[in-house]
Amino acid sequence: MSRLPTSGALSWNDIQNSFGGSSPIHINEYYRNSTYVNQSAINNNIPTSGAIDAADFHGSDGFSGTTGTFTNGDSGGKISSQGWDAGSYGSDLGVAFTTGAGIKVSVYKCGGLANVITTSSSTQSPCTATGGTSSNLKGRTLTLSGAQSYSATIGDLDSADDTPPTNYGSTGVLLSFANTTMAGSGTTTIAIS
Question: How far apart are CA 87 and CA 44, in angstroms?
Fold first, then answer.
């Protein structure tokens, strides 16, 4: 990933290299939920309108990488879930990335209960993942490595649409539904090829 540093000088070229775009740089394309900046928890400091400064992008992340990373967590309680679920357990270390096929995804869930895990992505622009059984990710390979090892082909799902937490956008798609146990700690890398 090319997550931007959390401190120090940032230029608009640094931002363009992380989020995409072409020269000349048009700053209005870099508002959150605009042409290039995805809605995600780590991009919450970037405004959706009004004054915008390069410093607003400290610690933010675009789609320039080909993998995403999250820290696995545990929801706690009598019946706990493991993995990462935005706003519930685990943490986002940069899960917006571009797949090997050029599809922009922003994963907000890769975790679950017992031996069933689900993986979901925002479909809100600038993400280019689509919902329904015609998902442009169908037939692609989802791979987890690190604390969690798993690989499967994304297929049709009974429940193809999913609702993300507010800070990840308004629409999402369920990418994978797997019968495997998710790790409750460590760091996991996710890729789609």
Answer: 13
- The secondary structure of the chain, three-state, reads CCCCCCCCCCCHHHHHHHHCCCCCCCHHHHCECCCCECCCHHHCCCCCCCCCCHHHHCCCCCCCCCCEEEECEECCCCCCEEEEECCCECEECCCEEECCCCCEEEEEEEEEECCEEEEEEECCCCCCCCCCCCCCCCCCEEEEEECCCEEEECCCCCCCEECCCHHHCCCEEEEEEEECCCCCCCEEEEEEC
Q: Record the pTM.
A: 0.81
Q: What is the pLDDT of residues 9-44, one digit of tens each?
A: 999 999 998 888 889 999 999 998 888 888 777 888
